[in-house]
Write a structure and sequence with these properties.
Strand content: 25-35%
Structural class: alpha+beta
Radius of gyration: 14 Å
Helix content: 25-40%
Number of strands: 4
Strand order of the largest sheet: 1-2-4-3
Shape: elongated
Distance between the termini: 27 Å
Largest sheet: 4 strands, antiparallel
Length: 97
């Protein structure tokens, strides 16, 4: 897992954080993307989150007005990601369709 963060976009003044999560296959990355995408941020303003997939890597990018909001969003996402990964591990690799 690779993370880069704590950066401030001087053009917008927002804090930014990004996370790249490698999966064993693109199918598993797609399952994680589909499982995590429906979760919208509970707060209307102050933060945005984008999930994308490239090959077998799930990438997440956050942009927030405040460090506290960013921290809460990242922690919540990591909790959900952990649950998704544990579930995939418990049921084994996905079957090709």
């Amino acid at each position: 897992m690779a993370a880069s963060g704590g950066e401030t976009n001087h053009g917008t003044g927002k804090l930014e954080f990004s996370l790249d999560v490698p999966f064993p296959s693109s199918r598993e990355a797609a399952i994680a993307l589909n499982s995590l995408s429906p979760d919208r941020e509970p707060r209307k303003g102050g933060i945005s989150k984008q999930l994308t997939m490239s090959g077998s890597t799930l990438s997440v990018r956050w942009s927030a007005d405040e460090a506290r909001i960013l921290r809460v969003s990242v922690n919540s996402f990591l909790d959900h990601l952990s649950l998704v990964m544990e579930t995939m591990q418990m049921f084994g690799p996905p079957v090709s369709q």
